[in-house]
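batch_manifest entry 22 of 60
target: O-antigen ligase-related domain-containing protein
source organism: Neorhizobium turbinariae
requested by: lab member K.T.
priority: normal
notes from requester: please return tokens only, no post-processing; we will run our own comparison against the previous entry in this batch. if the run fails, retry once and flag.
--- input ---
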Amino acid sequence: MPLLAVLLGCLLLAAFKVEADTTLTGELVVEAISHPWLVALRPMMFPIVLAIVALAAACSLFGAELRLSLHPVSLLVCALPFYAAFRSSFEDAELALKSLQAFLLFAFLTVFIAFRRANVRDDVVADTVAAAFSLLAFILVCLNLMFYLGGYGYLGQNARFFGATVHPNFLGVQMAVCGIILLHLALTARPMLKPMATAALAAAAFLLVQTGSRTALVVLAGGFYLCAWRVIGFKARLVSGALLLAVVSLVLVSDLAQDNWLEVYSRGGFTDTRSAAWQDLVHRITKRPVLGLGVFEGASENSLMRGWAAYGLPYFLIMSAMILAGLARLYRASRSAQASSASQLVAGLFFGLILGSMFEGYLCDNMSVGIVTLVIVSSVIGAPSAPATEDNPAALEDLAAGA
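--- output ---
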């Protein structure tokens, strides 16, 4: 139960955080598009989550051994905001402070999960992570569907759906993460839960489309592919892989809004919205390739290049090492017969987020659902786990009690 409370609390805090270039702008957008009760709830989220985390951490210490089971991938994820805080401190004190706060959050989650892994079985921790993600998916989908049906979540004449966030791209990634989680539930949950998961999955996909986010489609497609990896054969994997490449290509170079179909994907007649952004990122990298500019500015359509432009070559190398180490662990785990269904969810979330990060800069975020999700899955990625069986099914109530 302590681990479930900590994970769900941190994920909800990230989901409801005002994410914008300036806090004032973000607050104004939230007030314009949100239901009044959400506007009132947002300022209270941090003290509520802090109290829950403190209580859960204290409860977990009773009768536990003070030892850790750390993953190298999670340590690399923690190193990103730590180095970012150091580098930006020379140029932008406010950005450095935010990066330092992000490091403290990432480090706490990494250490807490490692502490729980050292005191309970890996499969119990992995299944608890899956339970926290499942609850998050139902909460976010139901909340944003309520916003949509109530006429909230739209800003002016903009056709794209903002939902409970301050930018449709943020909501798109959130719905992609929820879609991956709900597909996992629809494939592996108990019979009585599958219809609910399927209905919520359809709602998440619908809301994702309303955001007009192309990157979110890439995240969703990549996550679906890895989530279904163990339940499809070799030929199906090849066909699905080809379809995944086709989806990525279609999303990036075609006009999805052609003939007024899916107007939310209209980009004013432009079909290639990435080349100019990538050229801008390369231009900023060439200004100071080793040290970086120390600040965020301009385009952000690639996490690796965005981090390199802002923080320099060391940040790029740390992120590259994190991605490669994570993919290597996924490959080793895919060849193991001892893998639970929760491990496939972790694989789907990690791969989907990494694939989408090639087209969006959210891996450089200090606080968002995408980056917090990556921190959590990096702490359990490739962990050995007992396979789920009919005699020991994974249910939400069992998982909460087990941890």
